[in-house]
Amino acid sequence: MSTTWQRTHTCGELTSAHNEQKIALCGWVSRRRNLGGLIFIDLRDRYGMTQIVFDPAIAPEAHALAETVRSEFVLWCQGIVRLRPEGMHNTKLPTGAIELTIHSLHIFSSAQTPPFSLDDEPSESLRLQYRYLDLRRPALQRNLLIRHQMLSCVRRVLERHQFVEIETPILYKSTPEGARDFLVPSRMHPGSMYALPQSPQTLKQLLMIAGFDRYFQIARCFRDEDLRADRQPEFSQIDIEQSFLDQESFFAIIENMITTLWEQVRGEKIITPFRRMTYNDAMNRFGSDKPDLRFEMELQDITSIFHKSQFQAFAGKHIHALIVQQENFSRQRLDQLTEFVKGHRAQGLIWIKVTDTLQSPAAKFFSQEETDALRTQLNLHTGDVVFIVADIKKKIALEALGALRLQLGKPRKEWAFAWIIDFPLLESDGTRYFACHHPFTAPAPHAEEDFFAGRNLENLTAAAYDLALNGVEIGGGSLRIYRPEMQQRMFEILGLSAEEAKHQFGFFLEALSYGTPPHGGMAFGVERLAAFLCDAGPIRDVMAFPKTQTGHCLMSGSPSAVNDQQLTELGIRRH
């Protein structure tokens, strides 16, 4: 490119202060209009838009060339800044007080007619197929710039708190951490595989053992799992780990990072300390371990009211209720809500409309004592509607009503942050135990004795915590196991034999034996945080090149087949 075709300014910075200055711009043609000889072009780059004008009386050669220009051509132009005539200012643009009268024009490249207008909202598949064009749209460019601003701010805050940024490997060892690994065959070691990391879990703990007492990383993570709007096969997380961890001071650092983000990126002040709530409290009151606290509508445990009930649907079950005040539901809407809770594993939904009596298909099964107790315990008033879910498993009843609560709630416009603490350590499918968080999470200090003795395992509390925002988990972490005997005991409880533990985690168990500091940390989903800061929808809108919900890249056609020679080199046979 000729050195004479350099820009002096961007398309978003010219104002009336530049009047009569000689300026050069570069950018894409957003729109072209030919009005009686004068040609107007809106020239766009990532900084903004400037109107440029071609007058045949001033620059006939540039005007003739401008007649060949179409949408998305890439131009260099030079001219004189002029104030727009009185009454012709475009108040929607920062550059709307001026226009650039062009003397010289160069076309860097032409463009085919785009498959969609950048001013429109094309289909999702078309946007992903032509993502490089989609990314020219100001809304998506803004999202990615905010994401960049967010990560720059995170780095400054953590560096101020003496955290050191250290990269960890992408090609690593397959270790069970909750989801399927993406595997990468090794050409140099036929039959052996690398795994792409689900998270840098053991690696960051090894850095604590190595003496880097405060680490962070903007880490790429990979999980081979079914996708949805807030899940992608590859994503980024803000990974943070600290030795000699005091939970209170660590929470204060994290809160400082979050409040600084909101202040610097959104210009909004967030009040600290954040609200705290135990896992059990969150589940019992809101039916979720990431409750949306922008509205009330708390769940009520009414099991005791019906402990003698003759109603078969309640027999031997946990019974919970949700009250919606002064709301009128049609029968069709009630049927839709019933199907909705069934989609959340509930067997059904009982509804009660409160008038002078309790109107419900189930009301005939209630005794007068039960009816009176419902009115009293739930403090019911005329116009209220009560939704009830009963299930043998308490968690199913709570989660189904919690999902219904989110459907029916009317959130306030605010940022409702909350720490959720004291999570369960283990869960069981009836045959074996699984780590609720991951197998490196420490039990709470008061649970250690039962942990080693193997008592009451399903009720043990973990030293784990999440940070929730408006019904979304934006970050999670825990204090880690740092004693070899405790880590070995965890593997035993999870059903790993000594040989299996050594095969999968031998390097890590050995590292623990060389002097390990107490440590812990947490990780934040970059895309989830960015989506909040951008007021975006699905996390695809804050990623440059996302996949579809089936894991495909419509732009490149991946995943795709490879040729037989490549497979042979890797020792893989095509089926």
- Choose one word for the global shape: globular
CATH topology description of the largest domain: BirA Bifunctional Protein, domain 2
Number of DSSP strand runs: 22
Per DSSP, the total helix count is 15
Structural class: alpha+beta
Q: State which percent range the strand residues make up.
A: 15-25%
CATH class of the largest domain: Alpha Beta
Low-confidence stretches: none
CATH architecture of the largest domain: 2-Layer Sandwich
Integer average pLDDT: 94
Largest sheet properties? 8 strands, mixed
Rg (C-alpha, Å)? 30 Å
- Count of distinct structural domains: 3
Tell me the distance between the termini.
Answer: 50 Å
**Percentage of residues assigned to helices:** 25-40%
Widest sheet: strand ordering: 6-9-10-22-21-20-17-11
CATH homologous superfamily of the largest domain, by name? Bira Bifunctional Protein, Domain 2
Quickly list its features.
single chain, 28% helix, Gyrase A, domain 2, OB fold (Dihydrolipoamide Acetyltransferase, E2P), alpha+beta, 15 helices, BirA Bifunctional Protein, domain 2, five-stranded mixed beta barrel, eight-stranded mixed β-sheet, 3 domains, 575 residues, 24% strand
